Amino acid sequence: MLYPIEKKEKRTVRRKCAVRFLFGGKGLRILKYEISSKWAGSTIESFLRGEHGISSRILTQLKKSPTGIMRNGVHARTVDRLCLGDILRLELPEEEAPVLVPSDIPVEVVYEDEDILIFDKPAGMPCHPAKRYQQDTLANVFAAHARKNGEAAVFRPVNRLDRNTTGLVIAAKNPYAASVLGEQVRHHGEMTKEYLAIAQGIFPPALQQGRIEAPIRRLNERSTIRVVASEGEGQYAVTDYRVIAQGSNAAMVAVRLGTGRTHQIRVHFSYIGHPLLGDDLYGGEQSLAQFQMLRCYRIQLRHPVTGRLLSFVKPYEKELWRVAQAAGIALGGLEQGLQDLSFTESTDSLPNLFIESPPFL
Description:
Layout: E1 2-4, E2 20-25, E3 28-34, H1 44-52, H2 56-63, E4 69-71, E5 74-75, E6 87-92, E7 108-112, E8 116-121, H3 138-148, E9 156-157, E10 166-172, H4 175-186, E11 192-200, E12 209-213, E13 216-218, E14 226-228, E15 238-246, E16 250-257, H5 264-271, E17 294-302, E18 309-313, H6 318-326, H7 334-339, E19 353-355
Parallel strand pairs: 10-17, 18-19
Antiparallel strand pairs: 1-12, 2-3, 3-6, 4-5, 4-6, 7-8, 8-10, 9-10, 11-16, 11-17, 12-15, 13-14, 15-16, 17-18
């Protein structure tokens, strides 16, 4: 089902309390919390699970170590009760990283701290090794990056992109960060991901902005191809979009996913008769592009430890811009168009904003 959107989408984000933190090196992560009156009298487990979203799996790992959970410098149990002003110290266990062949392919690191790393993934690079791709994946690049920094980190991508989709990919550098960010992904609206795509055809005035709501399923059990399913079948999927610039027979569109199904943007735009340029799997024209013109250009999240709101914006990618120009899409107003999106908050109010604009804007 495709219909225009008239109202702005409201977003809610759960705020996490501030926390002091240290980094022990070689993959060891230490977190410290000072207990407020709100949690005085509560058990350590209640505080960690209720206030900081620490999973039962991580709690089990912490309990196995004599220094995993310390209160005021003394080993503590998860059933012990907290007092006002207590200092709770967690020592996240080191994990043995899987053996991966490091890859020296240059991939830009947009942001990195002790808990997260954000890559700008190029086209042609899978996120994970598979039968056909054992080396030169983003996981291999991460392995080389971690080795260079003397870290024993496991590659935990929070969001994944198709091999030929470019853009921002978040990797959590420890189990706690992965758990918290995973919760943000599952609670739609806490983490937002927006894409730029070049879709074939001319969008009429009534459909310059819209929502595509159609379930998605596999073509068959063995196929990687997805299709829109009949009512009552497949997985629920919703995609919001807005046309940013229209060319002679293709348009630059900004897209926000309400769900995260495999190939969702590609399937939905093919379904409404506007396949992505270069996407031969879903009917895209290949005279101007040899792979789908799709880029994850914006991610907004709460930092898993500090709770700070972070927004990363990188719309420019060389091939995407080349194809847009070749398709006659005027890009002069793109930067303003991205900030005017009704489903995008004003970037002026967001801290830690990273913007890269093409030289001709």
